[in-house]
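Supplementary Methods S3. Input chains for the assembly prediction are listed below.
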Amino acid sequence: MPSVNNTHRIPTTDLDTPPRLLLGPGPSNAHPRVLRALSNRQVGHLDPAFLAIMGEVQELLRYAWQTDNPVTVPVSGTGSAAMEAAVANTVERGDSVVIGVNGYFGERLVDMATRYGAEVHRLDRAWGEAFSFDEISEAVERHKPRVLLLVHAETSTGARQPLEGVSELCREHDCLLLIDTVTSLGGVPLFLDEWGVDVAYSGTQKCLSCPPGLGPLTLGPRAVERLAARKTKVPNWYLDMSLVGQYWGKERTYHHTAPINMNYGLREALRLVAEEGLEARWERHARNARLLWDGLGEMGLACHVDEAIRLPSLTTIRVPDGVDAAAVSRELMARYNIEMAGGLGELKGKVWRVGLMGFNSREENVRLLLSALAEVL
Amino acid sequence: MPSVNNTHRIPTTDLDTPPRLLLGPGPSNAHPRVLRALSNRQVGHLDPAFLAIMGEVQELLRYAWQTDNPVTVPVSGTGSAAMEAAVANTVERGDSVVIGVNGYFGERLVDMATRYGAEVHRLDRAWGEAFSFDEISEAVERHKPRVLLLVHAETSTGARQPLEGVSELCREHDCLLLIDTVTSLGGVPLFLDEWGVDVAYSGTQKCLSCPPGLGPLTLGPRAVERLAARKTKVPNWYLDMSLVGQYWGKERTYHHTAPINMNYGLREALRLVAEEGLEARWERHARNARLLWDGLGEMGLACHVDEAIRLPSLTTIRVPDGVDAAAVSRELMARYNIEMAGGLGELKGKVWRVGLMGFNSREENVRLLLSALAEVL
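Predicted structure tokens for the full assembly:
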């Protein structure tokens, strides 16, 4: 046997991280009860005790999303994995798809759908705007897509995409409606079944106040049919819902080892949603966002997104002329331990992104941020 | 706005799970220090404090694997995601590959490689055996593979695949050597660089004693070259190491939000490996396995795998004639809270699988298991 090389056996200290207030686009701070749940002792991934937990997580996800979809599961990866699962399971090589691109995550959907061989038709809009029904309708009429992909809550811009009438349009054209709810689930009204959404995905680290590491995904009956009728296997083993669904469904067939402790955390996060109730939770997010927007207005700062489609969970603030956006963020972190993010892509250097999500959507955080921002500016 | 449907707002109780001793093939019990680290307060995924943690995780993974590979990262999914990342990044449509199939995870590699369009050549052996150098050499000569995929530690059988001479063979044929180290990393001698391994992956929930949820992956220089020279994009966005590698590399470009708290846990698990030292850790695994094997022998129970290639981390025990394997496992759990798994595939009903991994590889666990098994049988 060779001798062991100790080059990479570096000295380390006990874990100690600064007490950040995470007011960027996510991760937001997990609820303390969620953090405690994470360290609960483990059981196996096929233990009856864990199967019961899985069932509870699924039920509470259905509540949070307002759906009866049997196939509602936390994908064993982050929100981006759930996004890819949504695409991989519904798109087949050569399929026409229409993707609304009005921010970073629309762009990412284009990248993913392209990798899965889709014939991608982009519907473009400036970052921070939303698509009108007529624009969507015209694109669907023209391109006859198999899937229409829209970002309900654009994490890069803070814009909400209205969905009135879209589901009827999709049904007329035998097209699935797939939406990104990463920054809306648990903070912004969502009625998947009422709205006729066929596929949705999310992350745990936004309005659910759980650390990142799981990606909720739900497939409605039309999406499940589409999956069953595929001509080819899903070209992604880990995210193949025809396999994953058997572990989370009645069969309980082993596919991969679920992230046990992360599921403990998500269960606790969803219990908090159920305890508070969706109506109260949405109202709290709206109220604290209003407080932030009013405070920003008083400071002479403008929001980038029109109020009619502005997400209460994520606000983009226009950086005033002559101000160094990155320097302000650095200062907020250095002096106040507050994380406030900058813009991505088209909005880089032009906006700051402030998240008031889940546990972090509290009046004291708004007051602190406004006061700290006034000091730094 | 529609009214909220409370059908799925089910009542739940505080999380409470039975005190299982996880002596199956994984997950094994996490070390208590790891469980505590999970619930540490969060920082953002681009926070300088987190970037420092990422660097430490990478260094300590290099130590555990005995490699200098710069591209050594925990994939943001379970070990199965790391397995798929290994395949997706090295295999291109039409590539000839040779896969050693002597257990469940070899079969899974075949499924994955097929989905990525490889021309798969199987090398088959009964479950529980290993391949001889001559068999491997003959297959490589005949099929001229671009990648040779072998399972170093077969979690379904407990067999270890010797690798002497294999790397030289691969280099002669411009073929990458990719190995599964899910059940060996942190418990069984591994010298990736000495052995000339180009790609390896693992899980966190076996000999590293961290909960499932991350999948360590390492790419050597020849694999990185292969990735850079691809004719097509990796057909998997989430696991594309040319993107993920930029977040974990010098660029720190955002790709997806890393599972912050799971990385806290993995860091602590790897610190425990570094504190104990690989030599002592491997010796401890060997010593406790020997104790188990001797005890089983005294009870008249036979191990399924030949001792020369038997993994100290995972033992398959032959189920005696006339004994109901599943009933024994159920009884061990009901009476003693001990999880001991059954066989998969070819070995279903024929063996039990006992893991003595990481924190769980302790003499008291061996004594308890032997005593409980004697009672139940």
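Chain B touches chain A through 92 residues (CB under 8 Å). Chain B is about 40% helix and 15% strand.
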